[in-house]
Amino acid sequence: MEKENQNMQPSIERLDHLVLTVKDVEVTCAFYSRVLGMKVVTFGEGRKALQFGCQKINLHEHGNEFEPKAHCPVPGSADLCMITNVPIGQVISHLNRCDVPIEEGPVPRTGATGRIESVYIRDPDRNLIEIANIV
């Protein structure tokens, strides 16, 4: 029985958090809370994260990253897709009110569980942020 357990691969259930390396933590927090409705949380010894659902995005300031860190952490290197239940038309209206330009969309795409409809924006570090509805 012990030998059988040693050969089992881990079964990943969900993403808990990811890390974004950013130029300015406060600017990033302001953008993600205002534009995407994420909650800014402080943890550890003053670290910042963006919480949504049961996930979060930990923030590392470029040049002051926490160890261990990605091999080559740089602002603007992420491409993230986030699912919302808000209809995409309302998302577009909100982005317009926030003066956030839409880079592309709405366009059909394929997400982790099937078809999605997406719009693409850039955050303050020029990361590509895809906001999508499941269709």
Task: Walk me through the topology.
Elements: H1 2-6, E1 17-22, H2 25-36, E2 39-43, E3 47-52, E4 55-61, E5 79-83, H3 88-97, E6 104-111, E7 114-122, E8 128-134
Written description of the protein model:
Helix content is 20%, strand content 39%. With 135 residues, it is an alpha/beta fold. The strands form two sheets. A four-stranded mixed beta sheet has the order 1-4-3-2, covered by helices on one side. The chain has a four-stranded mixed beta sheet with strand order 5-8-7-6, with helices on one face. The N and C termini lie far apart (44 Å).
Briefly characterize the structure:
Residues 14-134 form the VOC domain. InterPro entries: Glyas_Bleomycin-R_OHBP_Dase, Glyas_Fos-R_dOase_dom, GlyoxalaseI/FosfomycinResist, VOC_core. The protein has 135 residues and is an alpha/beta fold.
Shape: globular
Major sheet characteristics: 4 strands, mixed
Strand content: 35-45%
Give the rounded overall mean pLDDT.
93
Main structural class: alpha/beta
Q: Tally of extended strands?
A: 8
What distance separates the N and C termini?
Answer: 44 Å
Strand order of the largest sheet: 1-4-3-2
Give the proportion of residues in helices: 10-25%
Using only C-alpha atoms, the radius of gyration works out to 17 Å
Query: Which runs of at least 5 residues are low in confidence (pLDDT < 50)?
Result: none
Helix tally equals 3
Oligomer: single chain
H/E series: HEHEEEEHEEE
InterPro entries: Glyas_Bleomycin-R_OHBP_Dase (IPR029068), Glyas_Fos-R_dOase_dom (IPR004360), GlyoxalaseI/FosfomycinResist (IPR050383), VOC_core (IPR037523)
Pfam families: Glyoxalase
Protein name: VOC family protein
Domain VOC: 14-134
